[in-house]
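User: Some background: our group keeps a shared notebook of sequences we're curious about, and every so often someone picks one and asks for a predicted structure to add to the entry. Today it's my turn. The entry only has the sequence so far, pasted here. Could you supply the structure so I can complete it?
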Amino acid sequence: MPHILIIDSNPAATTADRGVAPGAVYAAALRACRDDLTLSVTRPYDGDALPALEVFDGVVFTGSAVEWSTDDARAEPIAAVMRAVFRKGLPTLGSCNGMQLAASVLGGRSDASPNGQENGLARDIQLTQAGRSHPFLAGRVDGYAAPCIHRDEVSDLPEGAVVLAGNSHSGVQAFAYEQDGIRFWGVQYHPEYTPEVVSGIMSRTGFMGAQDAQDLSQADTSAEAAARLGIRPDDLAPEMRLRELRNWLAQL
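Assistant: Of course. Here's the predicted structure to add to the notebook entry:
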């Protein structure tokens, strides 16, 4: 029965504004993958103490809607937690801000994308040569789409990191760092977000028009809605959308 620690990377005030609690969303997604998990959530930005890491089998860093990048000094509360996790050698997964944070902590850099925000869906994601054989992306094929919402992206990879996937908006949509006792796998997108969750965010923030947001909410069950969005019908269905989470859990 694996015990997973989820690092919720939103302060409570940001969660209240956005209406989505990243830690709770991630917990639901992991439970959808496996029903034998023990899950704990901690919120460093709100002053939660880091629990004893010895009891955990893996750690997840969620996305975040804070205004600062992971290179900013204000990110230190979660950066300190990630450094502690890496020192313990625990398998680590990061989504969106969680992947950007790993890049910053490991010696790379994240910054605002020159292409602006990527909202609702990351489209036409292509696997790299390394990504085609890496267990993190097992089952993925070129041209896939995934839920996303981000302003920042990895602008400089840490030395030793391997890009696994990218698209025309962000060249680093997934990377792995596996050296010096650290095993980190990360994605820029949000496999943990259901179509309903990401559609709700798009509607509340106005980042998508009403029709696109409605199509997004139905794209996992409606081939017509998926076609209007320009994605494959199964891209957002749970079996495919949760693929990275299942693959990460399998390696535990």
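Suggested note for the entry: The radius of gyration is 17 Å. Residues 220 and 238 are 8 Å apart (CA to CA).
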